[in-house]
Known about the structure:
two-stranded antiparallel sheet; 4 helices; 194 residues; alpha/beta
Amino acid sequence: MIKKDLRKQYLDQRIALSRDEIEAKSQSISNLFLEQVFSPGFHYIHCFLPILKHHEINTWLIINALKGLPSPPEIVVSKSDLKKATMTHFLLQETLDLKENKWGILEPDQGVEIADDKLDLVLVPMLIFDENGHRVGYGKGFYDRFLQKCRPDCLKAGLCLEAPVPKIEDVNPADIKMDLVISPGQIYRFPLTS
């Protein structure tokens, strides 16, 4: 299938889930992340904040669990420039003032800025992904542009409520592949091995 069709199908599927189903799946993803992906070697972790109206994964579960660790990593969140389709990153601190943008994303107004090349791990939102590690998001390209600027050793970990489809047909050369995707009950590491 092509991205446009996959985007519609999986957004519709996700919107049909109840808030309780989203929370249960989010908790499963959070648990897998903490048990099998997180490492104390990660100093800066970039995490997206959920768009509640789109029934996105509740990443606050991951953020709050990380904050509760004895030696917590620094959590980094983004502010989007909707005209340029770029993102600027800020430390998520108690004093950070978050406001909802026109897409329903909570964003910082200002704060301590963190450069792309400081990030050790990026948690990436998606609607669906394929068995090669390609993803379908909302189609604006924010994350692909952002991930191109990260260090080669920065771990790109997608979070998805679904299992992979076999193949996304219209992958673009600018699309950045995931290193792994965490879904409820399973982690997919790429390339997939049987």
